Amino acid sequence: MRELERRVRADGLLVEGRDVVVLCSGGRDSTCLLDLAVAIAGRDAVTALHVNYGLRTAADQDEHHCRLTARELGIELGVHRPAAPAPQTGNVQAWARAERYAAADRMARARNGDVAAGHTATDQVETILYRLASSPSRRALLGMRTREGRLVRPLLGFTRAQTAAHCRARGLAWREDETNASGAYARNRIRHALVPALEQAHPAAQANVLALAEILAGEAEVLDALVESVLDGRDEVALSVLRAQPEPLQRLIVQRLADTAAGEPAAGVARRAADVAALPDTGIASVDLPHRVRATANRGIVRLTRTPPLRT
C-alpha cells in the first residue's frame, strides 16, 4: 500500500463507503486528495466539486481539466459558477472561499457526507504565519483543524512536495494557478518571501512552526476543559464568578460565550473581557463588542448575544 494512502486511511478522515465531496481546483493538492478519496472511500462515495469563479483567463481550462480528471477516476464532478460577481472592492479571496464552502456544504448535506479540502502542512505553516501577523490571538497560532464539522483536511500532515510526488507516481496531471506567483496577495508574499527567510534563519523553521501548533492544540484542550468547568454547559456566567477567575481565564470564558453567540469564531472579543467584567452587578447594562456581539448584564448575570441590527 502506498505510504500516503496508508497514513490517510489510518487517520480515519476518509472512510470506506462514507460519502464525501472533494473540493477540486485542479492543483496538485486537490488532485492528490481526489485520488486518495477514491482509493479509500470508493468511487460510489466520492463526488468532486469544482468552482469556476470566472476571474482568470484560464478558469475554463481549469474546469475542463477537472472534468478530465474526474472522468479518469470514474467519479461525478459538480461545477458551481457563482451567480453573484466578485466584489470590486474588499476581499475577493474571502468571497471565493465563502462561495466554495457554501456550494460544497449544500452537496454534502444532500448526501449526509463530509467535505474534504486539500490543505497541506505547507498551507498550515503559511496560515499560522499569516494569523500571527494579522491577529493578536493565541487561537490564531493553533492553525487549521483536521476536522471542523463536516469539513475534513486529510492532507494536513503532508507537504506540497509529497502531494506532488504522489501525483507523479500515479501519473496524474495537475494545473498551476498563475496567481500563486503574484505578490498581490498576503499569502503569496508569505510563501515566497517570509518562509524562505525563516528557513535561512533556521532550516527546521517550518517543522518548528508545526510542532508549536501541535503543542498549543494540546494545551488548548486543557484550557477548554477549564472554561467548561466554570460555565458548566451554560451560555451565561455570574459576574462574581467571572471576576474570581484569573484574567487569562476571564478572556477565554468571554471568548467562548462570544463564539457561541456569534455561531462562529468572534475574533477580538477576548481582548474586551475586562469591559465585560466591569459591568455593574445591579440593574441592566450592556457593552458592544467586536464581531457584532453584545454583552448584557442583568442583575449580576452576563449573557452575550448578537448585536441587533440598526433600525433604518
Write the layout of secondary structure elements.
Blueprint: H1 3-11, E1 20-23, H2 28-41, E2 46-51, H3 59-73, E3 76-80, H4 92-111, E4 114-116, H5 121-134, E5 147-148, E6 151-152, H6 160-170, H7 186-201, H8 205-231, E7 236-238, H9 239-243, H10 247-262, H11 273-277, E8 284-289, E9 293-298, E10 301-306
Parallel strand pairs: 1-2, 1-4, 2-3, 4-6
Antiparallel strand pairs: 5-6, 7-10, 8-9, 9-10
Looking at this protein, list some descriptive labels.
alpha/beta, Rossmann fold, globular, Uridine Diphospho-n-acetylenolpyruvylglucosamine Reductase, domain 3, 4-stranded antiparallel sheet, 312 residues
Could you characterize what this model shows?
This protein has two domains: 3-201, HUPs (Rossmann fold, 3-Layer(aba) Sandwich), CATH 3.40.50.620; 234-306, Uridine Diphospho-n-acetylenolpyruvylglucosamine Reductase, domain 3 (2-Layer Sandwich), CATH 3.30.465.60. It is built from eleven helices and ten strands. It has helices at 3-11, 28-41, 59-73, 92-111, 121-134, 160-170, 186-201, 205-231, 239-243, 247-262, 273-277, and strands spanning 20-23, 46-51, 76-80, 114-116, 147-148, 151-152, 236-238, 284-289, 293-298, 301-306. The chain has a six-stranded mixed beta sheet, sandwiched between helices. Strands 7-10-9-8 form a four-stranded antiparallel beta sheet.
